[in-house]
Write a structure and sequence with these properties.
The chain has 363 residues and is an alpha+beta fold. The protein is built from 9 helices and 16 strands. The strands form 5 sheets. A 7-stranded mixed beta sheet has the order 1-12-11-7-8-9-10. α2 packs antiparallel against α3. The N terminus and C terminus are likely disordered.
Length: 363
């Protein structure tokens, strides 16, 4: 069992929980313009330009806030984008350090599903690098402010506590201090007895950290989400595999253990203003530990070489002329003939000078 730990950084117990170096991100949905912003000068054009250039949603948001037409309040420019839950995941090159990583993921695992004619990332395999859930499946309460993290949760022994940045003492002579701003315990963390959480300023986040087979990079790719239903289901899946297999890291018989996908499920929520229960439908994230053989034909149709690389179709070596080639290539032309490739536009906000990383030898 891989019990790898990452040493905390910062003064004392550390400002943030243990985590693996992040090299990219997969988004649980997409970000779109807020309706009130769509008609403002330059908003729609800047948004579309950023999407075409592969900019991250954060980069697009920053570019929108710099427009003269962006509304402002006492805290500065207002947020112009809002998250939208859709049946698929999204990847933006601006979120990755390795050039071409986002396109490699789309080439390997994107597919076309009726009635949407565009190739989308509906499902993809993942590989965990450790069995420690604190590393690969983090959960924490976080409240953000303009200066960064305002409150966050940490485990201290058997207690969940609310942390905040410590006060900065005023000194007549400026001096350099190792470790940055030391964190301090604010109070015990109890979401049901917290005014910050009650007003919606604090949220409970979950983060999966993993490798995607066939994608270059040494660090972890992260998937962040807030759905409590997804959190419970994913936790059950990981614990079940841990009990049955004894681990969740690495491959099993040369294949990824888990696939990430979505399903359209009905959930029941409490409307406390009306005192009623309401049922709504949402796209919920799942981490599946089975169904690899069922995905064989679909993945072979998308990209036979990637299927060979991750071992999903090891007996289909004849589908590729070079089975030993582990590089991600574009899918057959027949699978994308109806979807013309969009030209990339210059986007000054994107940093494209990052050196490529090596592929993990285990993948």
């Amino acid at each position: 069992m891989n019990k790898a730990r990452i040493q905390r950084t910062g003064s004392g117990g550390g400002i943030q929980p243990s985590r693996i170096q992040k090299v990219g991100a997969v988004h649980a949905g997409i970000k779109v313009l807020i309706k009130a912003m769509e008609g403002l000068t330059g908003m729609r054009e800047t948004y579309k330009e950023g999407l075409s250039a592969g900019a991250s949603f954060d980069e697009i948001s920053l570019a929108l806030k710099r427009l003269p037409s962006c509304p402002k309040d006492a805290r500065g420019p207002k947020e112009c984008l809002t998250m939208k839950n859709v049946p698929y995941f999204s990847v933006r090159q601006g979120d990755f350090r390795t050039p071409g990583a986002a396109q490699a993921i789309m080439d390997a695992y994107a597919e076309v599903r009726f009635p949407d004619p565009e190739p989308r990332l509906y499902a993809f395999p993942i590989v965990f690098m450790a069995d420690d859930l604190d590393l690969v499946y983090r959960q924490e309460y976080v409240a953000w402010a303009a200066s960064g993290k305002h409150r966050w949760s940490e485990m201290h022994g058997d207690e969940l506590v609310c942390m905040r940045p410590g006060d900065i003492a005023v000194e007549k002579v400026s001096r350099k201090v190792m470790g940055g701003i030391p964190p301090v315990v604010d109070r015990l963390c109890d979401a049901n007895d917290c005014p910050i959480f009650a007003t919606g300023k604090c949220s409970h986040y979950a983060t999966l950290a993993f490798w995607i087979p066939g994608v270059l990079g040494v660090g972890a790719i992260e998937l962040n989400f807030k759905s409590v239903y997804a959190k419970l289901g994913i936790g059950d899946s990981l614990n079940t595999v841990m009990l049955g297999l004894g681990r969740i890291s690495g491959l099993h018989k040369g294949k990824p253990i888990f696939w990430v996908s979505k399903s359209f499920d009905g959930v029941t929520r409490a409307n406390r203003e009306k005192g009623t229960r309401e049922k709504t439908d949402h796209w919920i994230i799942h981490v599946e530990a089975s169904g690899l053989d069922a995905r064989r034909d679909r993945l072979l149709a998308i990209n036979p070489e990637v299927a060979l690389t991750i071992g999903v179709a090891a007996d289909a070596a004849s589908a590729c002329s070079s089975p030993s080639n582990r590089a991600v290539r574009a899918p057959p032309a027949s699978t994308r003939a109806s979807v013309p490739e969009k030209p990339r536009k210059a986007w000054t906000a994107i940093k494209r000078n990052a050196p490529p990383n090596r592929m993990m030898s285990s993948l």
